[in-house]
């Protein structure tokens, strides 16, 4: 606590703690302001402390040893003490660092981070070294002993990485296999559907036209007779022929297809509330299917 004016009253309020203090040694300091100032200046020069500290010591507010010095290393440290990182306060107060050492270290977190990066130390050890609470060689020794006590830490991490890599490879391999199987199945079905209209394929081995025909892009041909009536309908499969036949007249809808033992197909349709049928067989050239509307099933 320091009094910063030579003209004082019997009591004053501290600007730091806001408490009111009495001045028991005021009469001994001097009768006038000039006398008190001269007395304080002499005391300051005699003990090597600043003028404010001299007033505080003479008024009995603090011991002389706590006064701020005006020269020497201690004075330099006192001037520097207000400029170091506040993170070093406990280390300075504990005697682990001088204010000058704290100022030289600069930012505490940055200083500890550099120690950690340069020497491979944990941040806990790096902060202890930065605060001068632990010597660097002792921190390095403790770090090495910790690694020796847990030699499997790196191996465990490597095994975990290998496990994740293996799981990822298995997942990619499985997805690839599923994609290949799906592509192969699609090509196989497409090949079977293209072969559906081949006359050399036995009737029993041909796929059901009702299930396979909708996935095909087929073309049909309607041949007209002398009176411009449909004389023959040709298509790539029985279902295409039956659908083309139904499309010739509004209100005619496909009802179903049924294979016969001789390789022919019977196509049924509904018209005017009745179920009618036509015969669908391979065309004369053997490449297409054909139906004659005037022909009735046997």
- How many whole angstroms does the radius of gyration measure? 53 Å
Distance between the termini: 127 Å
Strands of the biggest beta sheet: in what spatial order? 3-4-8-7-6-5
Mean pLDDT: 75
Contiguous runs where pLDDT drops below 50 for at least 5 residues = 1-8, 192-201, 209-217
Number of strands: 8
Estimate the global geometry from the Cα principal axes: rod-shaped
Keywords summarizing the entry:
298 residues, alpha+beta, two-stranded antiparallel sheet
Brief summary:
This protein has 298 residues and is an alpha+beta fold. The protein is 46% helix and 14% strand.
Question: Could you explain how this protein is built, in words?
Answer:
With 298 residues, the protein is an alpha+beta fold. 46% of the residues lie in helices and 14% in strands. It is built from 12 helices and 8 strands. The protein has helices at 26-29, 33-47, 51-58, 73-80, 89-93, 99-105, 108-119, 123-130, 136-149, 152-194, 209-212, 238-247; strands at 11-13, 20-22, 220-224, 230-235, 253-259, 265-271, 274-282, 289-291. The strands form 2 sheets. Strands 3-4-8-7-6-5 form a 6-stranded antiparallel β-sheet, with helices on one face. Strands 1-2 form a two-stranded antiparallel ribbon. The chain is rod-shaped and about 150 Å long. The termini are far apart. 20% of the residues are buried. Residues 1-8, 192-201 and 209-217 have low confidence and may be disordered.
Spell out the blueprint of helices and strands:
Layout lengths: L10 E3 L6 E3 L3 H4 L3 H15 L3 H8 L14 H8 L8 H5 L5 H7 L2 H12 L3 H8 L5 H14 L2 H43 L14 H4 L7 E5 L5 E6 L2 H10 L5 E7 L5 E7 L2 E9 L6 E3 L7
Antiparallel strand pairs: 1-2, 3-4, 4-8, 5-6, 6-7, 7-8
Helix pairs in contact: 2-3, 7-8
